[in-house]
Amino acid sequence: MTTFGKLATTEAKLLLRTPVWVGFGVLLPTVVLLVVGFIPGTSEPSEATGGYRFLDLWVPSLVVIALAMLGLQGIPAAVATYREQGVLRRLATTPVSPALLLLAQVLVHAVVALTGVTLMLAAARLLFHVPLPRHPLSFVLTVLLGLVSVFALGLVAASLARTTKGASGLAMIVFFPIMFLGGVYLPRPLLPKLIREIGAYAPPGAQPLQDAWIGAGVRPLQFVVLAAFAVGGTALAVRLFRWE
Predict the structure, then answer these.
(1) How many CA atoms lie within 13 A of 162 on its CB side?
(2) What is residue 109's three-state secondary structure?
(3) Membrane-spanning residues where (predicted)?
């Protein structure tokens, strides 16, 4: 097994020993779906949402929850805990590079996040008859780009923070705006036009997720912006990474 393979396997085992993040990542989007889905009126078409059901347009925002929780809370906390406990200082004497360590963190947390998204989409389809994305390829591409772009922001916080609390504080700087722009706190169709336009390009891509879902055209520039966040954020995290 390669160095990265051993590292990723170890990180996966350690993550499973902290079931709170696994539970949040896998179950939280589905739990929120169930809570909102059984509220009267959310499964009925509305003029305020362009004739769509509230639930149909809100499912992409549940994807935002899954990615933001793992990327902006799970990853920074895990890396900062290693730094706080001196684990990173010991790793610095091994062949493990910052890029390998951060990539392993992204991989194991991505598996959890994508599992949560898949479970939520299955529940939405089976329990509330939410239609599948009309442009599935665009939807999958946006999910992947959105995941890496959000996780890259989490990696920056993880690379800088010396303590777990510090990592959470740094990540919160972008966590709440991403949740707001992603329509988690208030459905995107009800947001002011300027806020919706800003959110259309913000990670993890709530607007292109929604456009792919209902069959509207996804703007190529949105993919470019998400890719720029993904590449730029990851490169910045590696550059700023500190073992201590």
Answers:
(1) 1
(2) helix
(3) 20-39, 59-79, 100-127, 139-160, 167-186, 221-241
CA dihedral 126, 49, 149, 121 (to 10 degrees): 0
With both helix axes pointing from N to C terminus, report the angle between 98-128 and 3-16 in degrees, rounded to the nearest 10: 50
pLDDT reading at 207 higher than 80: yes
Among 4, 55, 18, 36, CA closest to 213: 55
How many of the other CB atoms lie within 10 Å of CB of 125?
13
Q: Of 31, 47, 233, 242, which is closest to residue 151 (Cα–Cα)?
A: 233
Do residues 152 and 235 lie in contact, with contact meaning Cβ atoms separated by under 8 Å?
no
- At residue 228, the 3 state secondary structure works out as helix
Q: Could you give the CA distance from residue 160 to residue 157 in angstroms, rounded to a whole number?
A: 5
Question: In whole angstroms, what is the distance from residue 148 CA to residue 161 CA?
Answer: 20
Residue type, 146: G
Residue 34 corresponds to which tokens in the numbers above?
A: 């169930």
Each residue's pLDDT tens digit, 66-85 = 899 888 888 888 888 888 88
The alpha carbon of 129 is separated from its chain's Cα centroid by a whole number of angstroms, namely 24
Q: pTM higher than 0.70 for the full model?
A: yes
- Residue carrying structure tokens 């510090």: 166
* 163, two tokens: 């303590």
The greatest distance separating any two alpha carbons of the chain, rounded to the nearest whole angstrom, comes to 61
Is the confidence at residue 115, as pLDDT, over 80?
A: yes
